[in-house]
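Protein modeling request. Please complete all fields; requests missing the sequence field cannot be processed.
Requester role: graduate student
Desired output: 3D structure, token encoding
Chains: 1
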Amino acid sequence: MESGKYYVLSDGNNLTEGMTKEQILDAIADATGQTITNVDDAFITKIKEQNKNVPIKIWVGTQAEFNALQVQYEDVLYIITDTDELAMLEAEIQQLKQNKEEFTVLTGNLIPLANSPVATVAVRLPSGYTIDNSVVISIMIYVNGRWTYGCLGNDPTNEYETKAHYFISGEDEQLVVFYAKRLEGNADVEIPFKATLHKYAQ
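Delivered output (202 residues):
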């Protein structure tokens, strides 16, 4: 590899010869009409901001800094970093990151009914969680050596039907009882549960 030249990698480790720094700067000067001696961050930003040979300036600051400006120009894109919308978006992202919690399983039993086996599980919701439009319950049902995904509705495999049976609201806790009814197959199969609660920002 020759010193003083820039190379690019192609097809694995095969080197394709590039241009020297001076040749690169000359090519940029020919393309932009500007003579430069170095490619720094400011120059790269200036090239990125060009749109049909019309430079676009970008101003970034807080709402207070924007309000303090004496003049706003038409050829400048003003980006305000502390708007209510951005703050709300950031808060929502943080909320989503923390909102996946596991249910505490209180009881689990199989209720073998004629032609309609039902597995019932009561779960305790974490404090502050309710069963409404802001939560989604997903259930993993383990039958015949494999996990089957379920939710409050029909299972995608159509082998089980999982529904919320009822829920009890209390001051400090809530109990949710849901069941999975096997739609076909062996009525004596044990159906253990693994449930996950997802709460989304209101």
